[in-house]
# Entry
Amino acid sequence: MQPDKLFSRSARLMQPSPIRRMAGLVNQPGVISFAGGMPNPATFPDKDLRRILDEIVERDGSRIFQYGITRGLPEFCELLAGLLTKRGVTIGDGQGLMVTNGSQQGLNLVSQVFLDPGDVVLVESPSYVGALACFRNHQAELVGVAQDEDGIVPEDLAEQAATLAAAGKRVKFLYCIPNFQNPSGVTITPARRARIVEIARRHGFLIVEDDPYGELYFSGVKPGDIRPLKALPEGEDVIYLSSFSKVVTPGLRTAYLAGPEWVIARLELAKQAADLCSSSLDQRLIYEYCRRGLYEAHLQEVRDFYDVKCQAMLKAMEQSMPAGITWTRPRGGMFLWGTLPGGMDAEALAMEAVQHLRVAFIHGGPFFVDGTGQNTFRLTFAKEDVPAIEQGVRLLADFFLSKVAAL
Amino acid sequence: MQPDKLFSRSARLMQPSPIRRMAGLVNQPGVISFAGGMPNPATFPDKDLRRILDEIVERDGSRIFQYGITRGLPEFCELLAGLLTKRGVTIGDGQGLMVTNGSQQGLNLVSQVFLDPGDVVLVESPSYVGALACFRNHQAELVGVAQDEDGIVPEDLAEQAATLAAAGKRVKFLYCIPNFQNPSGVTITPARRARIVEIARRHGFLIVEDDPYGELYFSGVKPGDIRPLKALPEGEDVIYLSSFSKVVTPGLRTAYLAGPEWVIARLELAKQAADLCSSSLDQRLIYEYCRRGLYEAHLQEVRDFYDVKCQAMLKAMEQSMPAGITWTRPRGGMFLWGTLPGGMDAEALAMEAVQHLRVAFIHGGPFFVDGTGQNTFRLTFAKEDVPAIEQGVRLLADFFLSKVAAL
# Structure
């Protein structure tokens, strides 16, 4: 057989994530890891989940194990609608909701429903690599939009949109992670959110708002700071994705998306052909977990858990990082983002650090779509405990100092 | 917003299954249903699954709830490889394996990796509507291949392949369900399997072998009758899909596919962008269920369960169906296939039957890609018990008799 003759054009373009190449090194014992992007398993409420599992399987028996509805278990969807109401997003009245296998499936279905080869997707610079891979698999052209400590820069968004329109390009949507972004830790300010929605409407493209971290806010954050773009007066066409992966457990593949019914109806058809339905067991388990009020109480614990680690990392950074290195101050989520002096190669440093220093972090280049960001890096505070965070940051600071001094 | 301007070309083509329109009627209480395609929940081993769930969550704790590997839980993949060995399919030595969320996801990933718009997929006439929808969503051109009581007609396959090649069309693969096919209940004979593999090799297209029903054979079937095309000496390029949906439970979305490593590696990249990984809980649950030897014992029970129902349906058909109506004699699976005299409209009859007779079946037209099959229908014996099967067939026979007499 001749693979290259048989593969589709998109399959021929598929590439393993450049970050995955480091995975083998990162997970070695003895390595302090600021790499990876997984939630800390210490936050998983496995005792509660075990008890609920036992009760629901006893109570519901074989009903649990039958095929489910493509949009999701009806009572679960109702609960999710209630959860979204608290964030200011109303389902019904032309708005719909669907359960997906993680938000990654939501992103893939959105890509399938909106992207033809050559269509433009606007993405934050930097952005989540899993989303970039998904859009690339649908042969989209990815265009980066500038981002600073306040999130997407509206002026740049408007300018990019105008330039692309003038060049005859078709922008289908802006993909953004407004709260405690992966990878940057940055949050878009309320004022900018309103402007972004307004720019999208004016230029006729959609917004795909990915919000896996919104519930993971730290002390001092007010609801108004992180209100979804979809909750804005003109946000009805926004497609909003959220997930239980970071706040309960990712092994249960249970996320959800909300959007205008004309979008959800089409996404439902795409999901039906993509996998018929999501796991009944996973959905019922998360449903019961929420219904019993355990989710809200658990959330507060998880927020505190990551808040402590984040503050420890930020404090250690302040104390030890050499001049010339800057970083973001996340107010939630799992990540912070660093920038080395221009010309430094974060990828080479990451490789050297994990091998010789036994401290792992992720180089920033792959999070950009334009080849920039070679001097940037991502740190997660999710995995290690506070002493390891302090030790790791100190080691990293000394390491960076030696490299900056050698410039 | 202007949906039609924003949707992708494939999204604009997506259509709800014509079968789904009947779903509301079929599921009314009091209806004897030979429609639907779900396994009977009485076959789900929920007591065993409950016990295992409790044990594995206690033993493995939060490990169960973390993100998993895209290809699937390693120990589960190893077990699946052993299971395939028993069917004559060897993993390793250039062959790989991956876990999917039901075989529907496998079909969608295969479509994504192989199909560009306009590529041809050869399908059995009739074939599984969920697969047809999936291929259509990737803008494939579907071409039907003749099928009789012995399965795909090799002469027709060869002729179609030659005609398509002469017309400059690019055939990417043949999609087939060789054992107890949905919808026809037909099984491809061993002699024809060898010829089909040979024709595919000669014409340079792949075979996608979907085998959800192979383990559901009835008494009298020998292993040699249903050996996978992939197990044939020249079958190494065959992509083979199988699933636990019909033989354990479909609510746990746990299926698997095997194929040449060059295919699996690309499918893995596609799955990574499609949903990162399958449910850890579902995989561990099925893994433990198999590892403890419960699967083999359970299979025999499920086979007997459906065998009894099938024989009851066949016997009732023999006794009561009027002349001019023919049907297949399935040796496994969940379906049999009927043909009414030419010119009769099975869709109108199905609608009338469910409304007035309170007996539901599915019209055959949507299972064909060329607009034929208007006088065909599918019956499942999976759902009803033997008395209901006997009663339903008798009612249906009288109903058909009145319609045939009126011709």
Q: What stands out?
A: The first helix of chain B runs from residue 3 to 6. The two ends of chain B are 51 Å apart (CA to CA).
